Every structure is written in structure tokens, then in C-alpha cells.
């Protein structure tokens, strides 16, 4: 049969496969030994595209959050709830559970074309199939929950912790709780989650405009099928809609798109496919299409580029550029210098000594050996520690550092009347001269 209309189910399934594959594989891909994305509460680190950020370096986070939120606004303004229908894990899980496990494998449901009839659980065999379906889904939920946790605990650590779960109870409880939540939610709550729980469902309607691409019933051709909220009889419908109800039966959220756009619609386009199959037989164009109100009214193409969407693209581009620049310029070392409570110490030979506590952290992904020097003041020397020290990747260290005057008279050459001499201390990696930080402090001298 010649097809006049486009069908979306196959394309959507391909998108589901790509999304699932990417979500499963990303935690295992490493760049410079670091994950593409990892938010580790354990190690207090964020990995982003192979760059490691310590908790003190999360200045990149606001720009990522701006990108995320503005990205959601952009996508919704552009194409409505496309995320829900095409890439949301909940929708993918429901397709796996309802359409593959319950319908195709176990035959508990008659057809994926009718999602309005719940499985008949009055017979023993069907009860058994239902339990079997939940058990299969439970195993898949366990895999999905583990995969989700890989974004917070690296896979290698995750498996090591789980083989010794008595000592990692928090992670174990999270794994069990997420698995149980997914099992019960997908098997029993279903699309009610999208309608009543998901916060995205609440905000999306305010982001729509008449150019937003969404699922839409052509009431000009098909005619209105509701009058004062009541469904008209087949004979009363004065248009091309033949009231076959295929679009209603296939809808996973149990709505009738012919009523107009509704909050419950997840943009899965199942109804468009259903109507296309009917209209193809009649050699007509589908009455339910993926278009925009303006495009349908004016019979032209959807306007993707308009003020709002261009504005969102600009904000995303700016936030991303800042985030990438910050990650490029990220320091490979952190340093804090604090003075001890003692102002100074007069040594036996009259020299003056000041004590400092330096907090080092190697934020690079490889070990480095560090030492430090006093800049622009040849009259001060380091008396402790005398040897450089090595820190492993991510390791922190607290060092007591002693500075003393080389010669009493010279030490205050330019500040003879001052009790406080400003100094600059530079800490650096002796194996990589690019890694260095200079901090200002003071050297206190008796009046
Ligand atoms: S009306 Fe129902 S079937 Fe159609 S896109 Fe929305 S959720 Fe999917
Ligand atoms: S599938 Fe098309 S023809 Fe059938 S009821 Fe829905 S809109 Fe009307």
C-alpha cells in the first residue's frame, strides 16, 4: 500500500535504542582517566568531559545548571514535550515493560495498538504472567538503578562496594530503593507518573507558543468531535474523521487528542501513526500531525527560528562557552595559606621566624611533587620543610611552613619602620612548571 503519511514509531524506537545505549555506556568512557560525567559525593568531585573539579572548584556548576534549564526551556518552546515521547527513560521503560514484556513476550495484553484495556487478571495463568513480567522488569530495574548510580559512583568502585555492601550500606540502600521504586512505578503507576508527579509536565504548558511543534489534530479537516465537552456521535461529525477511535485506543496517557492539546500528552506521536494508517487507506493526509498551530492554520512550515528560540540558543552558547573556558583554565592545584596564632618568634641569633599552615590539594589527575618559594624578598628563607613533597592525584596535605629572616638588618630593608611586611609565596610543582599558585600573606616583625 502506498504511504502518503510519515510514521514515527520506528524512528522513535531507534531513538530509544540510541538513548539507552548512550546512558548505559557513558559511565564507562574515560578521558584522561576520568569519566565524562560523574558527581562523586564520596570523593567530593565533579568529572566533566574528563576534567575533574574539586568541591572548592564548582564555579563551573552554575553555568552547567543554566545550560540545563535554558536547554529544557529551549527544547520545550521548540518542540513541546519531545523529550517525554522520544528520550525520557520513563517512557522507554514503559515501552519495554508494557509493549515488549507484557504484550509481545507474555501476551498479557492483546496489542500495543490498544492501551486502554488492562490485562485480564482473573485467570491463574494471567496472574502468573503478571508476576513473571514484574520479575523480569525487576531485573531490568536493578540494571537501570545500577547504571543510574554509576553517574555518582564510578562502575569499578560501585562493584567493589557492592561486593562488600555491609560496609557501604548507604549505597546499598540507594540501590535497593531505586530498584524498588522503578519496579513498582513502571509496573503499577505507569503514565500517571507523567500526568500527576513529573514537574516538567506542570511547567511545559507555559513555554508553548503557537509555533511550538507538537501533536495536533486538524479540526478544520476532521471537524470538531466534541460539543460542550461531550463526544459527538459518529453521524454528527461533519468532517474527514471517521470516528474509528484508533488514535484514542493507542494513547498511553488515555486522552483524546481531538479535544485539543492537553497537559497529559507526552508527544509520543502514537496517535499520529494510528491516524496515518487509517488515512493512508483512504488515500488522505493524516488528521493528526506533528506540526504547530500556526503551520496548520496557515498551511506552511513550522517556524523553528524565532525570537524566543534564538534568545535561548544565545544564552546556552554563552553559558557553555564560559563553562568550557573555566574547565580549560582550571587550576591543577589548590592552596590556602593561614598564619599560626603566634605572630613571630625571635631566634637565639636574633633572627625572626614566622609560621604558616599551608593547605595543598593536588586537583590534577596524576601525582606531582611540590615545593614553594618566597617571591621578591631575598631576605626571607624557608627553614621548614627543606625537601619537596609529593601528593597523589586528588590528595590533600597540610604543611607547617617556617620562614625566617636571613639577616636581621636586611630583612626589613624596605619596611624598617613597619612591623608587617607583605610577602608573596608561590607554591609550584617541580615536575610541571605550569602548575603554580601565588598567594599573598604577611611576615610579622617586632617594632
Ligand atoms: S495524544 Fe496520546 S498518543 Fe497522541 S502524542 Fe499525546 S500521549 Fe501520545
Ligand atoms: S484515527 Fe484519525 S480518523 Fe480515526 S478517530 Fe482518530 S482522528 Fe479520527
Shape: elongated
Number of helical segments? 15
What class would the helix/strand composition place it in? alpha+beta
User: How helix-rich are the residues, as a percent range?
Assistant: 40-55%
**The biggest beta sheet, please?**
5 strands, antiparallel
Oligomer: single chain
Distance between the termini: 100 Å
User: Which spans of ≥5 residues are poorly predicted at pLDDT below 50?
Assistant: none
Rg calculated over all Cα atoms: 32 Å
- What ligand molecules are bound, each kind once? iron/sulfur cluster
Query: What's the overall average pLDDT, rounded?
Result: 89
Task: Offer a quick outline of the entry.
With 447 residues, this protein is an alpha+beta fold. It contains 15 helices and 18 strands. The mean pLDDT is 89.
Q: What features would you describe in this structure?
A:
The chain is an alpha+beta fold and 447 residues long. It folds into 3 domains: 9-205 and 307-322, no CATH class; 207-298, no CATH class; 333-444, Immunoglobulin-like, CATH 2.60.40. 40% of the residues lie in helices and 22% in strands. It contains 15 helices and 18 strands. The chain has helices at residues 9-25, 61-79, 82-86, 89-105, 124-149, 155-162, 169-189, 192-197, 199-207, 219-222, 246-249, 270-281, 293-298, 307-328, 408-411, and strands at residues 30-31, 34-35, 37-40, 45-48, 51-54, 214-217, 226-227, 230-231, 288-291, 333-339, 345-346, 352-362, 368-375, 380-384, 389-391, 396-405, 420-429, 432-444. The longest helix has 26 residues, at 124-149. The model has no long low-confidence stretch (mean pLDDT 89). Residues 222, 241-247, 258, 274-275, 278, 287-288 line the site of one iron/sulfur cluster.
